[in-house]
Amino acid sequence: MLQTRGCRVPGCKTKHRRHYCRLCGDEDSDHWASECTHPGSFTLYHQTDLPSGQAIASGRNMKRGTGGIVGGGIYFAASEQITMGKAHHRGCMIEARVYLGNILQVSALWPGQYTFDSLTGSGYDSVHVIGMPTGDEYIVYSQEQVRLRKIRDMATGREIPINHK
Hints:
Layout: E1 41-49, H1 50-59, E2 74-76, H2 80-83, E3 91-99, E4 103-107, H3 116-121, E5 126-130, E6 137-140, E7 146-153
Parallel strand pairs: 4-5
Antiparallel strand pairs: 1-3, 2-6, 3-7, 5-6
């Protein structure tokens, strides 16, 4: 009798043979995207207002904005503290595992404007803006590169449950 192997991710309740990690692209993954340790994947932070944080938690993804120093993307910082000098909206802290992949490093003095298509067309997955007085920024242009880990109401310190569909 031929035995079929199931999903290798501990605790996965989905009935499938293979688990796809949307951060590293492993088609037979042994880990959740939120725990991805692929070399191009990092834990980064984003701050927004509470209603937006709650909407992100209920929808489970982040959408790119319409503007920013390097165009409409999803902007992150390396720490919660760094978001304090960057955020346009405050009150909710998002911790995410972000796949940066092949990073285009640009100076804050001459950053340029990018889109998902222009970036991937040049062989890059993300932009790293260096030399900003408020600290470096990391920008991705696809929500598929972001896996939410924690969302916290900064006024109360309570974690907002993420709807894992």
